[in-house]
Design a protein that fits this description.
Layout lengths: L1 H16 L3 E5 H8 L7 E7 L5 H11 L1 E2 L4 H8 L1 E5 L5 E7 L2 H9 L1 E6 L2 E5 L2 H11 L2 H13 L6 H14 L4 H12 L1
Parallel strand pairs: 2-5
Antiparallel strand pairs: 1-2, 3-4, 4-5, 6-7
Helix pairs in contact: 2-6, 3-4, 6-7, 6-8
């Protein structure tokens, strides 16, 4: 995990040097807000908006090895840039464009994972939104861990305000209902 945090700090340095809006999501944010579990890659959200992705993609591809062929085209089509650090750690950089993603980067806060190693992570609420929207079995388990660890501190009105329109666009109205079922049980 220590190597993962250092790799994240290196990536964060690039984001900060460029004054880009960003935060860490996925496993790193889960280490802060939920139950600890092994994670093997660094997930970051980089808010580029729509139409301004290419400079960020080019900058990151100049610094990191791509994990897929035609990485730039893949990133533009799928809104995620798949990279690899020098020491082999995967870097998944989600290219944000919607208001929720911009708000997520605005709400992000610093957390010291190791002495003198702080990373900017999404909020517990935004992590719940991301994981619920992904709607995978492991994500639901992660959400339970966040709810347990952050008992009484989660701003549920915010979670629903962000999640419901995303699920409507995805035509998955069952996701917010599933989240409420989990919330009642935990």
């Amino acid at each position: 995990m220590i190597g993962l945090f250092h790799t994240a700090k290196e990536l964060q340095g690039i984001f900060m040097d460029k004054a880009w809006k960003f935060c860490f999501i996925g496993g790193i944010a889960l280490q802060r807000w939920g139950e600890m579990r092994l994670t093997r890659d660094v997930d970051a959200a980089l808010f580029t908006g729509f139409g301004s992705e290419e400079p960020a993609i080019d900058e990151l591809l100049a610094r990191y090895k791509p994990r897929v062929e035609n990485a730039k085209e893949f990133a533009l089509a799928n809104r995620v840039l798949l990279l690899q650090s020098e020491d082999g750690i995967g870097l998944d950089v989600a290219l944000g464009g919607i208001p929720f993603e911009e708000e997520m980067t605005r709400r992000a806060t610093w957390f010291e994972f190791l002495p003198e190693l702080s990373l900017l992570t999404c909020s517990a609420e935004d992590l719940i939104v991301l994981k619920a929207f992904a709607d995978r079995q492991q994500d639901w388990a992660d959400i339970k861990g966040v709810i347990i660890r952050q008992q009484g501190c989660i701003l549920w009105d915010y979670v629903h305000k962000q999640l419901e329109p995303l699920c409507a666009a995805k035509e998955s109205p069952e996701i917010p209902r599933h989240l409420e079922e989990i919330r009642r049980v935990v």
